[in-house]
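Table S2 (continued). Query chain:
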Amino acid sequence: MEQQKDFWFRRLHSLMGVIPVSVFLAFHLFVNSTATLGAERYNESVAGIAGLPFLKIIEFLFIFLPLLYHGVYGMYIAFTSGYNAGRYTWFRNQMFVWHRISGVITFIFVVWHLWTTRFSGNAANFDMVAAIVENPVQFWFMIIGVVASAFHLANGLWGFLIHWGVTVGPRSQKISAYAMGGIWLILSAVGVSALLAFKNTLA
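Corresponding output:
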């Protein structure tokens, strides 16, 4: 009974990570990328989102709750799962370990990011983010956080396709690994380019 409950908790954790959380992260990174087009364009994008009807309900049901469950249960998995050296290949074990490490970094980063932006009491705009990245420690922490989040998303999708029976054979899993590696690089580039755009305004 306990194993069955754990199975469904993990399935829900996997599903929450793919459908609402991954979509939100990718959308968030691409919205931030409008900073590369200038402060005015970025502020227009943020204002457009802020003007959506029922935004608070949408955020609570489809972003905060799934993010909270995926993050908290993910931290539990990260600190209770073992290293399956004798069960899986070297590559699978490396992805297992780095998924857990990137998950912990992402969790800390997301909590900090929400605290300094969404719950800061200040209106989200270009100048606010530029002020955050003005601090070198915060800037590099955001770089690490963005890259770790993108990796966690891409590797999570790779594992999702395996565990949900989409990529069954070694060949399909290898192709999927290359595809997800490409997604990681693209999302990382999008996120880092946005941070550099905020940073460059201060140069």
